[in-house]
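Progress report, Aim 2. The chain analyzed during this reporting quarter is listed below.
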Amino acid sequence: KDKIIKYYIDHKKVLVIDDFHYATPEMQIKMAQQLKDAIRRELKVVVVSLPHRADDAIRRNADLSGRLSLINIETWKEEDLKKIALKGFPKLGIKITDEIASKLAIECLTSPQLMQYICLSICTLLENEQKKEVTDEILEKAYRFTTINFNYTDVVDVLSKGPNQRGQQRKLYETVDGEKMDLYGLIVESLAKNPPLMGMDFETFYARISDLISPNNTIKLEKQTVKNHLKHLQKVLENKEEIFKAIDWKDGKIYVLDPLFLFYLRWGRLNK
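Predicted structure tokens for the chain:
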């Protein structure tokens, strides 16, 4: 370790630790302890984490608090995402309106990679249909077409089932569509509702779930029950592989960590 630190310092290199939030709490503590000594010896370190997990390194080791500078990198805005479509399609001789580009930008969930995926799908569909204009119909076809290679079926299944049942049967709520669904199923369905959001406070999330339940339903939906289910779901995901860690319940807010997962949730299941 001492030789590595010396090499980095002598050669003016920076140690970058990406996806710090994916490490277990125990590993985060160990890394924070090691970083304290390395930084004291003037090693330069960049720790990359999600915005709502940006203080994890500090929380794991209070001695680091005076040695850290937090840099918040903003996500892509809708106006910037629109430019990918508005500049790119005309160069291919394809017509797209500002309205259609706006719908596309919203659905991309701050991800330029997802925008490019969808644009490729649009081009493929237009070529197959020998058309030169992006319409609402083409847009929805492209959304579904884009999700074909997204493998989130097992993730949705785990979220919808929740933890293993023990003893008492789960309560089933009657939905506005006439289905019977338990609270874990409702949590998943509420994430897929319009407008697509990568993060929301509990009140907004609770309102989404309530809107899914039929007025004729006889079971009252308690807020604490929803919070308890989110906690149980969080524990289930903690013991799974990284692809399953698609949502995060933290400090009274629920976050969707992967734009591609939310996009699949909204459009991929329509292919089944």
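The CA atoms of residues 159 and 241 lie 13 Å apart. The beta strands are 14-17, 44-47, 173-174, 180-181, 199-201, 247-250, 253-256. These observations will guide the mutagenesis work planned for the next reporting period.
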